[in-house]
Amino acid sequence: MAFGDTAKKLKKLSNTAEKLYAKMNDLVEQLQDLRARVENTSDQIETMDRELAEQRAIVEALAEEQGVDVDGIVAEVEAARAEADGNSGSESGAETADAGAGDAAN
Predict the structure, then answer these.
(1) CB within 8 Å of 100: residues ≥ 6 apart
(2) Same domain, 53 and 37
(3) Are residues 19 and 33 in the same domain?
(4) Which among 13, 48, 62, 106 is least surrounded, fewest beta carbons within 10 Å?
(5) Rounded to whole angstroms, how far apart are CA atoms 77 and 100?
């Protein structure tokens, strides 16, 4: 009788080990997929950063050519955004930024 119980316990242990092995393989696949996605996202962010820097340089050059004070506009937008954040957002930052840009263009 003892051998029968031992065989059942070994079979149960073997089944549990197989299930754990399958779960471990699933987790490894998920981790590899996640790593690939993170690397892809990182590459996309680097590309966007480069493009944004290029666009900023172009906008600053055009603003300088037109006599627009870029630093002043940025400071106004940041101040308005901080004020809007302090006032619980009664006016959105985008509306404030648009208003500041319109004032600077005039």
Answers:
(1) 73, 76, 77, 80
(2) yes
(3) yes
(4) 106
(5) 6
**Cα(42)–Cα(50) distance, integer angstroms:** 12
- Domain of 93? 68-106
**62-73: b (≥16 Cβ within 10 Å) or e:** ebeeeeeeeeeb
CA distance 17 to 91: 59
Residue 100 per-residue DSSP state:
H
Query: How confident is the model over 46-102, as pLDDT tens digits?
Result: 999 999 999 999 999 999 999 999 889 999 999 999 999 988 545 444 454 454 445
Distance CA 62, CA 79 (A): 24
The number of beta carbons lying within 10 Å of the beta carbon of residue 96 is 19
CA 83 – CA 4 distance, rounded (Å): 77
> Whole-model pTM?
0.55
